[in-house]
What does this fold into?
Amino acid sequence: MSGPHILILGAPGAGKGTQSANIVDEFGVEHVTTGDALRSNKEMDISDMDFEYDTPGEYMDAGELVPDAVVNAIVEEALSSADGYVLDGYPRNLEQAEELADMTDLDVVLYLEVAREELLDRLTGRRVCSECGTNYHVKYNQPEEEGVCDECGGELVQRDDDTREAAENRLEVFEENTLPVVDYYRDHDGFVAVDGEQAPDAVWSDVKAAIESSEE
Ligand code: AMP
It folds into this structure.
């Protein structure tokens, strides 16, 4: 039997990455995430496509969306080789949602709900290990030694798009472009809204229950 097809929606900072990692461990599906895919291809030359900027990185650092044509191609390629998956960071606008409907069927659509002030606090305080990608927070999830990763000893850094200015821009982009996507999926089979302001373990237990009930 093929693994479940799971979509996880939520604003930047809502906990999609954390919950996706839990889903991968529990259900053995692949994590398909446009944010990570684009971060590994920040310098890709897209100048021949005639967009405002010549690389994905320039859009990302400004907190803007990378053009649909670039992102759609990444997702199509990743989904074609995945059995089950959790899709994280896509679709971010209605055009991408319509594109996705032509690529695959979804069994579960999760929406992690978190208020704007909390999101801003989470994003601007986030620190990420430059070596292994583990997430920390300056107030809520400190490493044992400041600036050093507990897991691998790597240096903790702030993502270029977690500065206050870029984070505020990303939240505006979310409200304008991606909230309509949430509404687009509200009537979809398997849609579940989860309170993302709970402790991570409580969020996980709601997420897990939603996926399990879709399998019954
Ligand atoms: P994330 O790690 O999901 O917050 O994504 C970081 C950045 O990558 C975003 O602010 C966008 O610039 C870009 N990005 C990620 N996913 C998409 C997408 N589906 N469409 C357009 N841009 C995206």
About this structure: Helices lie at 16-27, 34-39, 56-62, 68-80, 94-103, 116-125, 164-185, 200-215. Residues 5-29+83-115+172-214 form a domain with the Rossmann fold fold (CATH 3.40.50.300). The mean pLDDT is 94. Residues 72 and 96 are 7 Å apart (CA to CA).
